Amino acid sequence: MVKVFVHTDTRYPVNRKIIRRAVIDTFKKNEIENIDAEVSVAVVGRRKMKELANKFFGDSACHEVLSFPFEDVSNTSISGRLPAGRQGFINLPDGILRFGDVVLSWPEVLLAAGRDNVMVDEELYLLTSHGVEHLLGEHHE
Fold first, then answer.
1. Residues 99-117: pLDDT tens digits?
2. Domain total for the chain?
3. Element (DSSP H or E) covering residue 103
4. Domain-embedded: residue 140
5. What's the pTM?
6. What CATH number is given to the structural domain containing 7?
């Protein structure tokens, strides 16, 4: 079972069911089902999103969505082994696969919905799915 934890400020009228459905649907689309997994989704404002972008990406842009995988196993050594001190997804101490965090900027979700001429819940679904795809290893250029 995939557990979805949604963290948001009360001033953002976020539809948590849409977020959960987007995460579950993205897992199903990628044929990842019947596993014990967790994904965390946070909905933040512009200031927090800019802080995260600056801290982790060296820019001060207000992104619509950012993804932070729990463990990036793409940085393995030539032998295919993880550097010392890193567990990767193979050695789960409690059997729960924690994929990581998706962070959405609520003001940017609203702007994107207006720009794309879609309902806010539809944009929320699309951006959440996009973030989860990054957690699953899909990257665009």
1. 899 999 999 999 999 999 9
2. 1
3. strand 97-105
4. no
5. 0.82
6. 3.40.390.30
